[in-house]
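User: Run a structure prediction on this.
Assistant: Running it now.
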Amino acid sequence: MDNTQIRHLLELSKEEKKAFLNSFDAIMSDCDGVVWNFTGPIPGVDRALQLLKQNGKKLAFISNNGMRTMDEYREKFEKLGIEPQEHDIVHPALTTVKYLKSVNMQDAVYCIGTEVFKDYLRSSGFTVLDGPSKRLPDDRAANAVRTFTTFFNESNIGPRVGAIVVDIDVNISLAHLMKAKCYLDRNPDCVLLVGATDYVIPLGENMDVIGPGYFIDILENATGRKALVLGKPGQALAEFILEQFNVTQPERTLFIGDMLPQDMGFGTRCGFQKVLMLSGGTTKDMMLAHEKSNELPNYYADSFADFIQLFKDVAE
């Protein structure tokens, strides 16, 4: 695909705009950077989502953010005048639970993630291990070696662990990664599951933080294991979404997101149409410079507010 040929939605002719709006029955959208950002809802998103619903479009939300409870998600959408059903909101904690149940996981799960993520696992009946929560002494080389040897000794490693789960965790440390590696090394059947794979997480304009992608790379390289991705753009999530929403004509679903690998790559994997919003983690220049055609959108827009103008243009 020639990046320069990707058109802005509002640059389409009136007939092309009509054809576009008639080309999909459902919208699946990312949340952070698309519906809201660090400071609150993105301007115009409430009216745009309401217009789409009024015009018969089904709405669902596929996020890589497992840091919020379902009640928090529901509250944020209610403030926008949208009341999605619980199954219309999907994030990595939910797909992780579904996967672990599908393989009848009986062993403990070691989780590098937020307390919210771990609570999803615990409430679903899994034994969850985490930590260490205390800093390991490193004042002297001899003491450090002794401490690490004791900490990672077989007798101190705890119950048999059948899965390592890695997601966003602002408290992650080398000790967490070393402990995860020990579990993977000791049990060849232990699976490495990951939620969000983002390398950078945008919080707002000119503000972002390091995502879990780099730490996932470390574990894969250190253990020789390939992670099963249960967030975007993973194949496991794609299969889950197509089944959950009974998608029989994927080309009539529009996927909206702000990240190229995670959102546009996921849309491609599912066979969806794709719109990139420039309201989050990707600029137009980044889109134009991107070299992976499977991670490019069919169209782009400044934000969800462009749908308001799109409907006005078609109605005139």
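The radius of gyration is 21 Å.
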